[in-house]
C-alpha cells in the first residue's frame, strides 16, 4: 500500500469511527453484542430492512431466548415465527445450526471463524459479521451497503457483483479495518450505507468521508455503483382452491425440499396453456389429491413477486364434488381439514397469506 493511500485510509477510519459513535442507531443486538443475537439479526437482515425485521427479532427472542430453546423447538413453530420474512430456508438452517451448536459446542456459539463457517446457512459474509461484531475479530464484512459505499468511494467502473469488483471490495474491506476495532468499524460502514449513502440518494452533505470520495470528486456519485444486468421475472399463472367441507378448509404441506419447503398452502397449481383457471384447478386436485372438486366462485386474483418469478394467483371457493372421497397425497407430505380460525397457526407462503385475509366467512 503506498503512503498516500495509507494516509487516506487512516483518515477515513478515524472519521467513520467518530461518526458512528455519535450516530449509530439503537439496535437490540448492540446492547451486549451477544453472539446468538448477532447471529439471528444477521440472518434476518438478509434481503430484509431493519425496520421490517425488528418486530420479528423481538418476537423471536421472546420465544427463543437462547440457542438451546431453538434446538429444542419444532421446526413448524420456527417457520410460523418466520412467516413474512421469506426465504424460509434461513429459518430451517437456524434450526439445524442450533442443534449442531448444542451438540458440538455445548450450546455456546463458537468463536472460531472456521467453526462458524461450518454451521448450516452461514457463508463468508455472515461468518465475518458474527466474528467481527460479536467477538471483535478483524474480519471483513461485505454486504450491499458496503459494496455501494466502496463502489462510490473508489469509483469502481464495473458492477459490484463482477468477480474483479468483488475481489477488490473484499480486499479493501479487510485492509480498511483498524486493528482491534473491527466491531465498530464494520458496523460504521454498514450504518453509513443504511442511513446516509443510500441507493437512490447519496447523502453526501451528511457523509463523514465525502471529502475522500472519488466518485463525488468526479461528480458521478449517481452513476455508482454501475448497474448489473437485471433478470426478468418469469410470470406464472396459478389456480388455488379454498375447499370448504363441514365448516373446515383443506390445506396441505409442501415437501421438505424444493420451492418454499415445509410451508402449508391451499391446493392448486400452474395453469397450463389452453386451460381455464377452473379446469386447471379441477385437474390439479385430481392429480395431487385424487379429490374431485366443484368450483363455486372466484374470490380473488392476487399478484405477488418473488426473487425470480411473479405469480398471478387465481383463487376460488370450492366444495367436494361427491361425498366420501379419501385424500391420496401425490406431492404434498400432509393434508389437514382445519377450521378457518386455525389458519393463523400455520406458516403459509406470502401469496397464500394475502388470500387468508379475504376468505369468505372467515
**Structural class of the secondary structure composition?**
alpha+beta
**Could you tell me the strand content as a percent range?**
5-15%
Biggest sheet architecture: 7 strands, mixed
- How would you sum up the global shape? elongated
Series of secondary-structure elements, N-terminal to C-terminal: HHHHHHHHHHHHEEEEHEEEH
Multimeric state: single chain
Count of DSSP H/I helices: 14
Low-confidence stretches: none
| Separation, N- and C-terminal Cα atoms | 66 Å
Provide the fold topology.
Elements: H1 3-23, H2 35-45, H3 50-63, H4 67-72, H5 75-82, H6 89-105, H7 113-117, H8 124-135, H9 144-153, H10 163-175, H11 182-195, H12 214-218, E1 234-245, E2 248-253, E3 264-265, E4 268-270, H13 277-289, E5 293-305, E6 309-320, E7 334-338, H14 350-356
Parallel strand pairs: 1-6
Antiparallel strand pairs: 1-2, 1-4, 2-3, 2-7, 5-6
Helix pairs in contact: 1-11, 2-3, 2-8, 8-11, 9-10, 9-11
